[in-house]
Structure formats: C-alpha cells, structure tokens
Amino acid sequence: MFNEEIESQAKRKTITILQDEMHNVLESARRLNKVYESIKNNTKDLEENFSKIGKLEDKVESNRRLLTRELSEIGDLVLHREDFLRASYNIEEISGYITSIGFRISHMNFKTLNKIKLDKDFDSLMEMIIEGTYRLNEIIRALAINPHHSLDLTNSIQKLEKDVDAKYRELMPQVINKVESVKELIVIKDVLDSIENGFDQILRTTDSIAILALGL
C-alpha cells in the first residue's frame, strides 16, 4: 500500500510537469497569434511578442529538463517512463515549430495577401493552429482526472489536422500562381509549410499522449 501511494504521488508530479510544459506551449501559441495580428495590422508590438515566444520556448525546455530529471530520480516507481519522456519531447518540438512560424510570419508582407485576397484564408489557418494547441492542452489536462477521456478528445485533433491539410492544399497552388514577387512567394510558401508541419507535430504529440493515457 505504501509503495502504491509513493508511485501515485510520483505519477501525479510527473503529469503536473507535463501539464506545465504544455501550458507554456499554449501561451506561446497565443503569442504567435499576436505576432500575426501585429503583421496584419502593422502595429509596433511585433518584436515584443516574438521575444516572448522565445522566452516561453526556454521555459518549455526547462520543463522538459525537469521532467527528465524527475523520471531519472524516481527510477522504476513510475511505469511507462519512456512514454512520458516521448510525450515531453514531442511537446517541446511544438514550441520549436511555433517559434519557426513566428519568425517566418514576421517577414511576411500582409499587403500581398490582401492583394490576392487570401488574407481570410490565412486568418483561418492561424485560428486552426491556435485551436489545435488549445485542444491538445485540454487532452493533457485530462490525464490527471480521467485518462480515458483524453483518448476521447484526440479525435478532435485528428479532424482538425485534416482541415489544416485541406486548407494547405487549397492555398498553395493559389499562392504559387498569384504572388508575383519571387521573394514574397518564398516567404509566404515558408509560412504555409511551417504551419502545416507544425500541425503535423501537434498530431504526433496527440498520438504520444494517447499511448501514455492507455498506460495510466
């Protein structure tokens, strides 16, 4: 009974660290949206918001290091340690993609999107990646309460990923055909690619959380 209680405490602590890591990723995604709004509305807070994304990425890395150290210290007390670690590294990679997307967006000329009438489509893409990050955060929050509920929530991420993929395939040919400047074409294409790849990472992370939930 005593060992079971120690194991339960160790597991709760590990899940809490994982939740903190994901919460910082969610905050980073919210800052990404502010970066996008800065470019869209030509405001002066672009540098400030992008800087905060970088600081949040550092926090995510610290969370992952803390979880790694915790798992090392508790040894065999927590089963499925590899699943916890895999999930943590996957979450950290989302943070890296968010930084990458923010960097590319910061070099984008939004007037070009207005000119070719794709601004609303990009608004939609940004909303999807923020929504995907929010839903993943909810999935990880559910781990501590009801792991099976986490599994139920993963379906919404899969559906959203298909929507992002469809929007990506719809927009890419239009961007290639309508953007006249080669420099701007490269930047906008990079933004689209980074968003699509970023959401693929959200889906991979969702899969790793599903595997983790099965073992809890």
Short overview:
The protein is mainly α and 216 residues long. It has a single domain, classed as Up-down Bundle (Methane Monooxygenase Hydroxylase, Chain G, domain 1).
Put simply, the count of helices is 7
How many domains is the backbone divided into? 1
Summing up helix and strand content along with how strands pair, one would put the structural category as mainly alpha
CATH fold name:
Methane Monooxygenase Hydroxylase, Chain G, domain 1
Low-confidence stretches: none
Taken in chain order, the helices and strands follow as HHHHHHH
Shape: elongated
Largest sheet: none
CATH architecture: Up-down Bundle
DSSP strand (E) fraction?
under 5%
Report on this structure.
With 216 residues, the protein is an all-alpha fold. It has one domain: Phosphate transport system protein phou homolog 2, domain 2 (Methane Monooxygenase Hydroxylase, Chain G, domain 1), CATH 1.20.58. It contains 7 helices and no strands. Helix 1 packs antiparallel against helix 2, helix 1 runs parallel beside helix 3 and helix 1 packs antiparallel against helix 5. The longest helix has 40 residues. The radius of gyration is 19 Å and the shape is elongated. The two termini are 18 Å apart.
